[in-house]
């Protein structure tokens, strides 16, 4: 029934004109502000550890995640997500023994033991036998496949210093969750990452846009019995690593590779860590990376204010949740657009357990399974809000908008978590708000029904507005053409 009601011509034919002027109480209008500018969108991404260690040679997965093609998978066809950012993980593990000493990592799952390149402390020279450049072929391969498909931003990140840099030689963490890096290795951690960045530039055809030395460094859950690589750092040690990393990148000629920091677990911890740094350390940080695990909580706005004051951007560099429907993903992502104003957003594990993965997979058994509904929810955003677009204010927590100056199109993504209602989009503040009667293509995904990224041609401009009916638990994307700011 909604199909015809969106067409103003049909509305008039049917005599249902009241809907135009008298929306029900629950309906609302989002007015898009063309004067606003919440940053130039850098893109969408994913971390390659751990899934690419297992599935890094599957080009169909590269097609699904890094192109916007229609890709066959599991008997169906998927809309490629078109991600353009890959986060490559510098591993902390190696199986060699150094003078009778070996890594202690009994509890880290095999799929999460990422092979590291600097395998002993004897030499920092990357051409020496202390470095093994052949390890981790699968993760590197997925990065190459991504690049071949158009990915153009890469970040190098670390979950833990190499095992031999750790006090207990265990890259899962210290026994008590405290700091694990040995003081004589603080600079070595920076040397390790800068050396990989230089090697990647010279040998892999990859210039990392940024290097991140930490992963949730203030958290205390990085203990020796954890099942993944992790490392707690004190604020003072973080500051030393940041300073050393800036200097090691510079000395290798990588002056335009940013030091990103600090990938804290929440917006609030991210802000607190940032505020703990002195101005010299802050100036060495080229971008704030933060994780989105605070869900709907936390002061995204305060972290944004801090980044703005420092003149740097924010990436939501890691998001994941266990909600297979994509409801939480849409809710938190829309809050990010409205309050955090990141210029990029990267999912954690593209292939993971039920709920967490976009595609369900068993990394230990190297088996892929079905696609989650959240895959299609994410597609509603990633396929339309594209690199280079200007993010606009919408004045509404459930609406995001982006303007494509080259194509003169306006993209709007909106979700409805409440009872079914009309949402009206008001473009009257634009100098050219499309054309009266113009078709507005509409894609729709229901969080918990079978509708998956379905294209509808039933929505039209009515003067300087258009509207669409949103069932409860729906996300819809619109592309409005012939728009000038
Ligand atoms: C994946 O591809 C890389 C590079 O082509 C190769 O070195 C590696 O052995 C392959 N891995 C598997 C499991 O086939
Ligand atoms: C291993 O031990 C020998 C003898 O003590 C020492 O000369 C050498 O430097 C050590 N190697 C490393 C990599 O620590
Ligand atoms: C800022 O912190 C860095 C890293 O700890 C330190 O080297 C530097 O001396 C500090 N600068 C000031 C002005 O306190
Ligand atoms: C749809 O999913 C949401 C979020 O998981 C849940 O709260 C709601 O109960 C679901 N509704 C139906 C009809 O399954």
Automatic annotation (TrEMBL):
Record key words, sorted: Hydrolase, Signal
MF annotations from Gene Ontology: hydrolase activity, hydrolyzing O-glycosyl compounds
Keyword Hydrolase attributed: yes
Designated name of the protein: Glycoside hydrolase family 30 protein
SUPFAM superfamilies noted in UniProt: (Trans)glycosidases (SSF51445)
Signal peptide: 1-26
Organism: Hypholoma sublateritium (strain FD-334 SS-4)
Keyword Signal in record: yes
